[in-house]
Design brief:
With 277 residues, this protein is α+β, with helices and mostly antiparallel strands. It has one domain. It is built from three helices and 15 strands. A hairpin with a 2-residue loop joins strand 13 and strand 14. It is globular.
């Protein structure tokens, strides 16, 4: 993996179909940028009681096969070279940059974006009901939000199942309306939901998307056993600081060495870049 950068974002910690105007932010000339922008994670949402009632009212949907990933923590033996970010364990690729989004008020990490060339994918994981997935509903809500804002959204299928390919409208520097292409992917797992948002070239070219889709597939979601409201953001964390010998132990994997973090240094307030070999 290449470099880490920490950014800030002001948002609450629940999943919402509402997308802020900066999502898929345009580069100024109407083209698509590799920057995914920001997803509004706030939800005027479900209580535990509402979610339980919804689960009893609606039959469970057939699960999409996850045999090729993304994986639940129970389906892997350990990190196996992945980077431990709390609720998400990620696999790097040569030349890939990871950017952590930090909520300004709480300083909590609320999202991670992998950037490879002119493409990017933002990953966030959320709690979900025990007996029912949420992606079908969320996909419909996102589509409605985008079209009501003047964009377009097409429900399609992809390597990880149902997708949403959208043209999101925003106002350019000259005041004209411009459109950015964004590709939403959702995966329902056991008591969790993983959302991946492809932007830049990966949103419009399959070849450009392939490498980042491999990153999504190799991701491990660590749901934990805590009681959480459906659509609540699963907690992420900054990478652990290795000891002077370049070795560190992963949470929940006593004795397992976290690889490839030899030069990772502590984060400070504000943007910083740390080299990872």
């Amino acid at each position: 993996m290449g470099i880490f950068r920490r950014g800030t974002k002001d948002t609450s910690a629940k999943l919402s179909p509402v997308i802020s105007a900066t999502e898929g932010e345009d580069n100024g000339d109407g083209g698509d940028s590799a920057e995914p922008g920001h997803l509004d994670s706030g939800l005027a949402g479900l209580t535990d009681h509402d979610a339980d009632s919804a689960t009893t009212r609606k039959p469970s949907r057939p699960a999409v096969s996850r045999s090729g990933g993304p994986f639940d923590r129970s389906e892997v033996e350990g990190l196996d070279g992945r980077l431990d970010l709390g609720a998400l364990w990620l696999t790097g690729r040569p030349g890939m940059e990871l950017r952590l989004e930090v909520e300004e008020e709480s300083q909590n990490v609320i999202g991670v974006t992998a950037v490879l060339g002119e493409s990017a994918v933002q990953l966030q994981a959320f709690a979900a009901p025990r007996c029912e997935g949420v992606w079908d509903d969320i996909r419909t809500e996102i589509a409605a939000s985008i079209t009501s804002a003047g964009g377009t959204a097409d429900k399609t299928s992809g390597p990880l199942g149902a997708e949403l390919r959208a043209q999101m409208s925003s106002r350019g520097p000259d005041g004209r309306t411009v459109f950015s292409t964004v590709r939403f992917i959702g995966v329902d797992g056991p008591r969790w939901f993983l959302r991946a948002v492809l932007s830049g070239q990966a949103a419009i070219e399959e070849d450009a998307a392939a490498a980042l889709l491999d990153v999504v597939k190799a991701t491990v979601v660590v749901r934990g056993n805590e009681a959480m409201a459906p659509r609540e953001l699963l907690p992420l964390k900054l990478p652990a600081q290795p000891d002077p010998g370049g070795r560190d132990l992963a949470d929940g994997d006593a004795g397992e060495v976290v690889p490839s973090l030899d030069d990772l240094k502590p984060f400070e307030r504000g943007p910083e870049i740390t080299e990872i070999h």
